[in-house]
Design a protein that fits this description.
By secondary structure, this protein is α/β, with parallel strands linked by helices. It is built from 10 helices and 17 strands.
Length: 350
């Protein structure tokens, strides 16, 4: 690993501190190095506030050192006025002679413009250091702007014999109990951490009815995602947790279109294009990512329509012998690990 890669890796580490707080902006880290010594660091901490480059430059005590330093950043510095002034301008103002960038920002307001502005000012610019890692880090941001929809993560837990739920009575639903809980407490905590990193969380009608989920991050310290519920036939009773108005919630319905105190009903026009309508509405609302947690029918619909980007599948240390079959998924297995007694598989869409 050379020096450029070493400091870019540090940028990526810093950037991750912004998970869950900067969306719909990208997560960015910045390191400033002078004569082999790090003299400044920063990352984008919160949407609407200072970007990583600004925080890193401001952290440098002796600003005269900037004139002989290299600035490392995992994403191309912005060149336009948004919530904050252009980072490229600030770099130029401080006469930083060299800038090393992980990847180009494909967002149309930026794409190449920041690099062009820096080079026109006489700054040496190197692009593509740990490029794949930089692109992967901001996969949500790039998917959102390039595909005009949120980044879609599918999540479920299944037993060793391939079921995600026990057989339930046809005449009534029931709350989740020990007999149908598949994964360990440690896995549950990890799931709540994941929720805090995404903009929204989605479930279908049956999951909301049977499990009465809260869809929050009560077992992790972080921001609650927007709750998304599919209830086309208005079957769900208003006593469910998803209607408690404690968290911004969108309910997709065939008949309702109202909004009051954190609870919004969005009308669907055609059930045949349900998922595309839902994702388009989330895009309009600037929701950059969504984690879909069930049920089986909703998850399979995303899979069958190729409207997913990655899946996180737990295989618990249980067998049900009968019940509701887990979704059928084909993709590229990129990683797997043990979380306590649970086998976690990470799969991406080819």
């Amino acid at each position: 690993m050379n020096f450029d890669e070493k400091y870019m890796l540090r940028c990526l580490e810093l950037a991750k501190n912004g998970f869950g707080n900067v969306a719909p902006n990208p997560i960015v880290g910045c390191v400033i190095v002078c004569e082999g010594k790090v003299i400044g660091e920063g990352y984008h901490q919160e949407y609407g506030k200072a970007h990583a480059e600004v925080n890193a430059i401001h952290s440098v005590r002796d600003k005269s050192l900037l004139q002989k330093s290299t600035l490392y950043v995992n994403l191309e510095p912005c060149a336009h006025f948004g919530k904050t002034p252009p980072c490229a301008n600030l770099i130029i103002e401080h006469n930083i002679p060299r800038v090393v960038i992980g990847c180009v920002d494909s967002y149309s307001e930026v794409s190449g413009k920041g690099i062009e502005k820096l080079r026109n000012a006489g700054i040496e610019v190197t692009v593509g250091i740990l490029e794949n890692e930089s692109l992967q880090l901001n996969k949500r941001f790039f998917t959102f702007h390039n595909k005009k929809r949120p980044y879609v993560i599918l999540k479920w837990a299944e037993t060793q014999d391939g079921f995600i739920d026990v057989d339930r009575p046809l005449d009534k639903s029931r709350d989740t109990t020990a007999d149908n809980w598949i994964t360990s407490p440690l896995s549950k905590q990890l799931i709540h951490k994941w929720r805090s990193e995404e903009a929204a969380i989605m479930v279908g009608t049956t999951t909301a009815l049977n499990d009465n989920p809260q869809l929050n991050v009560r077992e992790w310290n972080g921001k609650n995602p927007t709750r998304i519920v599919i209830d086309l036939q208005d079957r769900l009773p208003q006593t469910l947790h998803v209607f408690d108005k404690s968290i911004p919630t969108l309910v997709f319905s065939l008949s309702k279109e109202t909004s009051t105190n954190n609870l919004t009903f969005v009308k669907i026009n055609d059930t045949k294009t349900l998922l595309k309508e839902v994702l388009n509405e989330l895009y309009k609302r600037n929701i950059q990512s969504v984690i879909v947690e069930g049920g089986a029918k909703l998850l399979q619909s995303f899979i069958d329509q190729h409207l997913w980007d990655e899946a996180r599948v737990f295989v618990g240390n249980k067998k049900f012998k009968s019940g509701l079959k887990a979704p059928s998924l084909k993709g590229n297995l990129i990683a797997e690990e043990m979380i306590d007694v649970d086998h976690l598989k990470w799969i991406v869409n080819n």
